[in-house]
Amino acid sequence: MFNSTEIGIDLGTANILVYSKSKGIVLNEPSVVAIDINTKKVVALGSEAKRMIGRTPDNIEAIRPLKDGVIADYDITTSLLKMIMKITSRKLGMSFKKPNVVVCAPSGATSVEKRAIQDAIRSSGANQVFLIEEPVAAAIGADLPVDEPIANVVVDIGGGTTEVAIISFGGIVSCHSIRIGGDQFDDDIIQYVRKKYNLLIGERTAEEMKMEIGYSLLKHDEVSMNIRGRDLVTGLPKTITVSSYEMQEAMRDSLLQILEAIRATLEACPPELIGDVVDRGVLLTGGGALLNGLQEWLREEIVVPVHVAPNPLESVAIGTGKSLTVINKLLKAAK
Ligand code: ADP
Ligand code: MG
Q: What is the pLDDT of residues 121-151, one digit of tens each?
C-alpha cells in the first residue's frame, strides 16, 4: 500500500486540478463535460467541452456537474473523474496502482455533500481517499504556516463559493462560506446587460468581460470593451460598448456580500488572534482573487494588509498535494 501513488485533487466548481508530488500540476481543466443526450456518452471534457457551452447542436449538452463547490450531478461527476484518473495515470505511468487521493471539500459543505465527494473519487478508481478542508489546502498551497498557533486568514473566491476562514494550528478557528463567487459575477453581468441594453449575451462573453474590464468598487481609470449579443427587441446581432464603471454597477451587490463575509469572519476572530490578523493580514486566493483592483479595494475596506497568493488558481491543488506528505506519515504510523 505504501508504494501506491499519491495525488491531490482540487475538485473545483470551475476548474479541476490534479497535483502529484513528483510532477507538480499534471492536469488543469475546466469542470465541464459535453454529453450526447441521445447516447448519454461523454463526448468531450475540460477546455474542449467549455468551448462548446452555448454553441452546440441540440443533442450535445455542455454540463458543469459541480455547483456551489459541491456535486450537483453525481453520475456525470463520476464519469468526469474517471476520465481524469485515466489521463492522470497515463501522465504519471501509474496504470497498475490505484492512487491514494487527497481531495478538498468546501468548509461550508454538509456531511452528505462531503461523503458524495469521497464516494465519487473512490468509484473513479482511487485507493484511499482523504478529505481536507479547502481553505486549509489553500493556505498550505500558499506556504502559510498553518500548523503554528498563528492566525492565517484565507479568502478563497472560486467559481461557486467564497470561503473565508481563520486557520490556526492546523484547523479552522472561524469561517464563513457564501454561495457567491465568479459564476455569480458572470450572471450579474448577463442580467445587467440584458436590463440596460436589452441585449442577450452568453456565459463565456460575460466571463471574458469580467476578466478584462471587471473591477472592484474602487476609483480607477475607466476601460471599456465592445461586446456582441442578440438584441432582444429586433432579434438581431448587435455590438455595444461596456465600461468598467458599468461592470462595477453590475457586480456591486455580490462584491459587497463577499466583503460582508470577510468582515463577519474577522469579527468572530478570537481576541488572542486579532494581533496576528492585524500584522499578517488576509490572503486572497481562488480565481476571483485576480479581479482587477480587488486587493486594493479590500485593503481600504477592512484596514488590514491584503495579499494575493502567488498562483491563486493553483493554491488549493498545490496544498492538497503537499498535505499528502503528512498523510503518508500518518499511514505509515498507523501500520
Ligand atoms: P473553483 O475553485 O470553484 O474551481 P477557481 O479558483 O478555479 O474556482 O476560480 C474560477 C473563477 O475565477 C471563475 O469564475 C473565473 O471566471 C474566475 N477568474 C479567473 N481569472 C479571473 C480574472 N483574471 N479576473 C476575475 N475572475 C477570474
Ligand atoms: Mg477552489
A: 999 999 999 999 999 999 999 999 988 999 9
